[in-house]
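Input structure tokens:
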């Protein structure tokens, strides 16, 4: 468990671990002592490597600028008749033109630069020239960028043409879930505060949320701790402190929460009942007084 990882002891007058150049007693000593008190109360707390310093946050924000720009471009050009393979080329071309690298490309064998999940695909849909977007489809485009070794990650839903009211409502409520979760991201609160807010809004609207796949820490690597779920309770899960960065990305199903993975490609998740699924993804920084949405 993360709360049991022993931290290297730092002297009061030693340089702070955050690399600010200040003495530990003037920088993060009181911060660390507060975290330790909360750990002793039985809570899961973040280890230091999950807490980004000012230089790291600035670099992650630069990566996020590319991620946002790419999703903006997709939003401006996506339409009926476009293939998901074409979306993949847009993402690769624009990301590399801006100096970045698409993080999904060759990640654990993933073959493309982006994930495009249509209708009953929950996540990790693999772009293809054979998948042509049709009137009435809903599609999630999940984009992740590496810039100078720093990672950003977010996704958006797009409605193609004349989408049914039933599907449109699913897309809208899923975004509302992310917004309500973001409102609960506060320093010295808990990850479960966010998780319960997301959960309660989805289920109040008659939907379910996938259990097996969730959000994650991000910034210095593609996937970091903590794992972020949406079946948690307020006051539980990891303590949130300034400098943490993670994603809020519930996968909300119109039907039941059960999913299965495509046996042929080993990546794409589908709803078991083949009803539509929607997902938005925000990359969030915990700040001194709340939260900042870095990529969306």
């Amino acid at each position: 468990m993360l709360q049991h990882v022993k931290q290297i002891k730092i002297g009061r007058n030693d340089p702070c671990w955050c690399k600010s150049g200040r003495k530990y007693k003037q920088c993060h000593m009181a911060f660390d002592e507060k975290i330790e008190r909360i750990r002793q109360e039985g809570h899961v707390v973040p280890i230091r490597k999950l807490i980004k310093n000012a230089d790291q946050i600035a670099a992650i924000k630069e990566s996020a600028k590319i991620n946002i720009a790419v999703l903006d471009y997709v939003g401006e050009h996506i339409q009926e008749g476009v293939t998901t393979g074409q979306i993949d080329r847009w993402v690769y071309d624009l990301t590399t033109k801006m100096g970045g690298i698409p993080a999904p490309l060759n990640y654990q064998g993933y073959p493309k630069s982006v994930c495009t999940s249509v209708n009953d695909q929950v996540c990790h849909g693999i772009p293809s020239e054979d998948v042509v977007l049709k009137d009435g489809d809903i599609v999630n485009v999940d984009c992740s960028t590496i810039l100078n070794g720093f990672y950003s990650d977010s996704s958006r839903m797009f409605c193609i043409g004349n989408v049914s009211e039933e599907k449109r409502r699913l897309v809208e409520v899923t975004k509302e879930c992310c917004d309500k979760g973001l409102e609960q991201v506060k320093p010295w609160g808990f990850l479960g505060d966010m998780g319960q807010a997301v959960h309660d809004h989805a289920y109040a609207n008659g939907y379910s949320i996938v259990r097996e796949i969730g959000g994650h820490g991000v910034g210095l690597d593609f996937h970091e701790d903590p794992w972020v779920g949406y079946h948690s309770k307020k006051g539980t899960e990891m303590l949130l402190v300034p400098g943490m960065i993670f994603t809020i990305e519930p996968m909300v199903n119109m039907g039941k929460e059960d999913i299965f993975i495509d046996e042929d490609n080993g990546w794409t998740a589908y709803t078991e009942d083949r009803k539509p699924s929607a997902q938005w993804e925000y990359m969030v920084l915990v700040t001194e007084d709340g939260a900042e949405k870095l990529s969306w």
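Helices lie at 29-40, 54-77, 84-97, 165-183, 191-204. The chain is about 30% helix and 20% strand.
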